[in-house]
Write a structure and sequence with these properties.
- Helix content is 53%, strand content 10%.
- It has six helices and two strands; from the N terminus they run ββαααααα.
- A two-stranded antiparallel sheet has the order 1-2.
- Helix 3 packs across helix 6.
- The protein is globular.
Length: 118
């Protein structure tokens, strides 16, 4: 899924794919799905996990436009990217950021066999 999300005063293109969780683990050494499970436990994705997810999806959108190499992502690039925002910018956009990722996890296909009515 691809969408532009407003973070602070900026409109940031973001892209969520099946590789988002893999890239998250590659760059940050953490399991994104484990972090997502914590959403239900404490009411929200942790601040650093939210920022990291936003970074991965923003860089995926840049790669789509030929502006980034996803194989070169690292934590220094994350910090540099994060410095463009005020402290509360990303948390204020958390619903849209998480929604883009979780929306990517939902199927858009319909079952081929229709359920029979009883």
């Amino acid at each position: 899924m691809y969408r532009e999300i407003t973070i602070g005063k900026e409109s940031i293109p973001m892209k969520a794919t099946a590789a988002t969780a893999l890239r998250y683990r590659h760059v940050f050494g953490q399991d994104l799905l484990t972090e997502m499970q914590k959403v239900g436990e404490d009411g929200g994705l942790g601040m650093s996990a939210l920022q990291q997810l936003a970074f991965i999806m923003a860089k995926a959108a840049e790669a789509k436009e030929g502006k980034a190499d996803l194989n070169m992502l690292n934590q220094d690039m994350f910090v540099e990217w994060l410095e463009q925002f005020d402290p509360m910018d990303i948390p204020m956009a958390s619903d849209e950021i998480v929604g883009l990722y979780t929306g990517n996890m939902e199927t858009s296909s319909e079952p081929k066999k229709k359920e029979k009515k009883k």
